[in-house]
Design brief:
Blueprint lengths: L1 H20 L48 H12 L4 E3 L7 E2 L15 E2 L3 H11 L9 H14 L5 E5 L7 H4 L1 H10 L1 H10 L6 H16 L8 H10 L3 E5 L5 E7 L4 E3 L1 H8 L4 E6 L3 H8 L5 H22 L5 E5 L1
Parallel strand pairs: 2-3, 4-5, 6-8, 6-9
Antiparallel strand pairs: 1-7
Helix pairs in contact: 3-4, 3-12, 4-9, 6-8, 6-12, 7-12, 11-12
This protein binds zinc ion (ZN).
Length: 329
């Protein structure tokens, strides 16, 4: 994974200009299920979109918005990419969700982010870990991973919102996300590969096999989605209640160790309707190493990759094809 992150950094620092000269290079073989990139504004075409990879089944994204200014959007992407909004965090594994919203005080916990917060590690370790007996369900896994992380000295966290019973999309749609991984592994892996994270055929097939196992295991996923959030809290996860509607306009992919992106500062600068999903990919390898019960590097790598896939798949299930991926390295 460290090697992947190194490649990731190299890719972004080395190829960004070349890519901006040939913005559609990677979209040639994909069927455009999403609006044309020009809808996002010329200044942002240097960034890859979910739609280029035939991903983005959801509605969250700039093409569905009438309240944003394309120039401001382009400026925001550039500023986010420059690392201007990065702030230090003390944690080293994902604790809070990629969600771009804030709580009623306009704040977020300053901690590493992944889709679902700690639940990203739950799903990633399930998809990428040693094949487990089918007598384990999502609820038991959630409790076990949270307690393992606590034993290793990590904080854990989940969130809801002020208007839904399960206000975290990564949790509410966990089963759909597993289905998406099972059905669309090649598109999801193609996006990951573009970001410097290459999965082997063995890794891809084992992750797909595990996703299918879980989908066919009756009652693996809890019927009451909020029960997963409650169980997490009962086992020590910190809970954030976020407010309002999803206004995310892009995905900040942050590879700067020890940092996250300050959602409040983005709103303060551009307005409350300008939000970003934040993926702190630098924290995935540490999480994978710390919950890998198998002990081998091979599995740690596979879990880290599975966490990456779970993040891409969550973005694809919730987000629209017009969402750009903004690397911060
Ligand atoms: Zn969430």
């Amino acid at each position: 994974m460290f090697e992947s992150l190194k490649n990731l950094l190299k890719h972004f620092t080395g190829n960004q200009e070349a890519e901006s000269a040939v913005p559609a290079a990677s979209s040639q073989q994909s069927t455009p299920a999403a609006p044309a990139p020009q809808a996002v504004g010329k200044s942002s075409t240097q960034y890859h979109t979910l739609g280029e990879f035939n991903l983005g089944l959801g509605t969250i994204g700039p093409a569905n918005r009438k309240d944003i200014d394309q120039k401001v959007l382009g400026d925001m992407y550039q500023a986010v990419a420059s690392g201007k909004f990065n702030i230090p965090v003390s944690g080293v594994v994902p604790e809070i969700c990629v969600d771009g919203r804030t709580d009623k005080d306009g704040k977020r916990k300053e901690a590493p982010s992944a889709a679902g917060g700690t639940l990203s590690i739950v799903y990633g370790s399930d998809l990428g870990g040693t094949p487990t007996a089918n007598d384990i369900d999502e609820m038991q896994l959630t409790k076990r991973i949270i307690n393992t992380l606590k034993e290793k000295g990590h904080s854990t966290g989940v969130h809801g919102d002020d208007h839904s019973s399960c206000g975290c999309g990564a949790c509410a749609k966990a089963k759909t996300i597993y289905q998406h991984i099972a059905e669309r592994i090649n598109d999801i892996a193609a996006l990951a590969s573009q970001l410097g994270i290459d999965l082997t055929e063995v890794e891809k097939s084992s992750i797909v096999r595990q996703a299918k196992n879980r989908l066919s295991q009756s009652d693996f996923f809890a019927e009451d989605r909020a029960a997963i959030l409650r169980a997490a809290q009962e086992n020590g996860a910190i809970f954030e209640e976020l407010i309002g509607a999803h206004n995310e306009l892009g995905i900040a992919l942050n590879t700067k160790p020890g940092t996250t992106v300050d959602r409040s500062a983005i709103r303060a600068k551009y307005g409350p309707q300008y939000d970003m999903f934040v993926v702190d990919a630098w924290a995935f390898a540490t999480a994978a190493n710390d919950i890998n019960s198998n002990g081998s590097d091979e599995y740690a790598q596979r879990i880290a990759n599975a966490i990456t896939l779970q993040n891409v798949a969550t973005a694809s299930v919730l987000g629209h094809g017009s969402l750009s991926i903004i690397p911060i390295g």
